[in-house]
Structures are given as structure tokens and as C-alpha cells.
Amino acid sequence: MSKKKKQGLTTRQSVTTAKTKRLVKKALKNKPKWKPAKGYKYLKDLKLGSLFETQSGMRGVLIYCDINAKIIVTNVKGEEKDKSYYLGRQTIAAQTEVKEIT
pLDDT tens across 53-66, in order? Predict the structure, then answer.
């Protein structure tokens, strides 16, 4: 390859790299703002001690919430043999969508 062709490839490559960097920077700034489904709240938005129910029918009490939420599961829909695993103290994501039970 001649010297001019090598310079042309380098310039095109640096332009592509600059465009990519600009797109990445823009994407990181414009993060989507997620909202829970209508009628639901995120677990992290509930007060400690609140009763809740998930879409799958699991009911529980919120006892601690940071990045993950510690809960006490009181009722689960499902087979009897699986209930013993789910009932009791569990850790789930703080951004789990739940309905607050008042």
C-alpha cells in the first residue's frame, strides 16, 4: 500500500472512533427513566413494614431495603411442595414491581 492509502485508512478509522465515542457518551447521558406498571410501585418506594403482593401472587412484608430488599414471604401461590422453599425470609431486587396492600 502506498503512504496515501495508509493515511486515508487511519483518518477514516479515527473518524469512526470519534463518532462511536460521541454516541456512547450520549447514550450514557440519556438513560431511560423506568416506571413501574400502572397500579404498581417499586419495592424500594415502600415504607419498611409495608405489606405487598407481586404479580405472581407472592405476599410479604418489607423489612429492609437498599440495593436488594429483604422481605418475609407470608403467602405464595403454587404447589405445596414448593411453598416451604419460598416462605420465610428472602432477598429480592429492590426494583421488583409490587402492589401495596393497605
Answer: 999 999 999 999 99
Burial string for 54-78 (b: 16+ CB within 10 Å, else e) reads beeebbbebeebeeebebebeebee
* DSSP-H helix ranges across the chain: 3-29, 80-86
- 37: cell is 406498571
pLDDT at 3 over 80: no
What CA–CA distance (Å, rounded) separates 52 from 33?
23
Express each pLDDT in 16-35 by its tens digit.
888 899 888 888 887 778 89
Helix and strand element counts for the chain (H, E): 2, 6
Asked if residues 63 and 72 have their Cβ atoms less than 8 Å apart, the reply is yes
The strand pairing partners of 101, in sequence order, are 51
Strand order in the sheet with 97-101: 41-42, 97-101, 51-54, 59-65, 68-75, 88-93
- What pTM, to 2 d.p., does this model score? 0.68
